[in-house]
Amino acid sequence: MFCPLHGEEAALATQAPPNDQQVPGAEPSGLIFNIMRFAVHDGPGIRTTVFFKGCPLSCCWCHNPESQSFGASLMYFPERCRLCGDCLAACPHGAIRRLDSIVTVSEACRLCGTCAEICRADARQLAGRRMGISEVMAEIERDIVFFDESGGGVTFSGGEPLAQPQFLGALLSACRERGIHTTLETCGFAQRAVLLRLSEQADLILYDLKLVDPARHEMFTGAPSTPILRNLEALAEAGRPVTVRIPIIPGINDGTEDVGAFRDFLAPLGIRRIDLLPYHRTGAEKYRRLGLPYKLPDVPSPTSDRMRQVAASLEAAGFEVKIGGSRGEP
User: Fold this and answer.
1) 326: helix, coil or strand?
2) pLDDT tens for each residue of 90-143
3) What's the 3-state SS for 120-188?
4) Per-position DSSP letters for 24-92, written without gaps between them
């Protein structure tokens, strides 16, 4: 089983991608592909989760494949399509073609979003739109009453929020000014100085850890694990509030050696909170909508027994383990 590297990931982790380039004097803005309300597994209490577009990793099991590209992504829902032809007529680049009951998009597509705007059936949707700080904060502040009652707040997830550091920093500052609890979920593949600086502004960090072995990590995610491990060590040394999140994927990182590697790496760091997230295939349909192959078609979800076994192994080493998303600590 091998997932090929998506060429630009390493470079994008060390420089600001196009969606974080700011206009001097203008309000900071960034590319967001979703804002989800009433989330209860992305930190303490009831939360609003803001999903940043673009990620330096390309994990084989990613359930939000529309998050990976650093630009907008066009999604097609064939079951909604009425074959009306409006999108064919509206496309300014002539990129849409129809053959009988099949509608396709060619390489001439420029992701302008015209077809999504014209489609009355919502069969075409553009994932990713540029939003300013005031626009995002207006969405977040709609839920302040729920944050106050539940001890919740906002979670910045992705994609990878640290890939848009200027935009993320401005949002963290705005939330702090309003007394809103913030959680940062990150894959950890970022410049260390950026990670440490922005983690100071977050109340909680959810740190995704997929594999310890660098070669196998690169095989399945498109990037080596070494920068991720070193950055986690730096967060622990700095005393940041961290919960480690480990997705459990059968046949990839659920073996005895893999669990032992997680245990041996994390034990000296003093980080004790671990969330185990069982792999699921709920994102498989998204790959079809994006016109991409699903990379793990034959991998099942882990059994409840296996999840309990992994949890027990880590608990025996002194970790506090939760299966499924964690509400974290306020």
Assistant:
1) strand
2) 999 999 998 888 888 998 999 999 999 999 999 999 999 999 999 999 999 999
3) CCCCEEEECEEEEHHHHHHHHHCCHHHHHHHCCEEEEECCCHHHCHHHHHHHHHHHHHCCCEEEEEECC
4) TTSPPEEEEEEEEEEE-SBSSSSEEEEEES--S---TT-S-GGGTSSS-EEEE-TTT-----HHHHH-T
pLDDT reading at 25 higher than 90: no
- How far is Cα 93 from Cα 41, in angstroms, rounded to an integer? 42
| Integer Cα distance of 9 and 221 in angstroms | 10
Q: Is residue 3 one of the residues assigned to a domain?
A: no
Q: What is the 3-state secondary structure (H, E, C) of 234-282?
A: HHHHCCCCEEEEEEECCCCCCCHHHHHHHHHHHHHHCCCEEEEEECCCC
Q: How many domains does the chain have?
A: 2
**170 in the same domain as 220:** yes
Give a yes or no: residue 233 inside a domain: yes
DSSP conformational letter for 320 = E
Q: Could you identify the residue written with the tokens 């803005």?
A: 29
264/128 Cα distance (integer angstroms): 39
Question: What's the CA gap between 326 and 45, in Å, rounded?
Answer: 10
What distance in Å separates the CA atoms of residue 280 and residue 278, rounded to the nearest whole number?
A: 6
CA–CA separation, 21 vs 266, rounded Å?
A: 35
The answer to whether 242 touches 183, Cβ cutoff 8 Å, is no
Torsion of CA 246, 252, 254, 257, to 10 degrees: -110
For 73-90, the pLDDT digits (tens) are: 999 999 999 999 999 999
Residues 84 and 180 in one domain: no
What is the number of alpha carbons within 13 Å of residue 12 lying toward its C-beta? 26
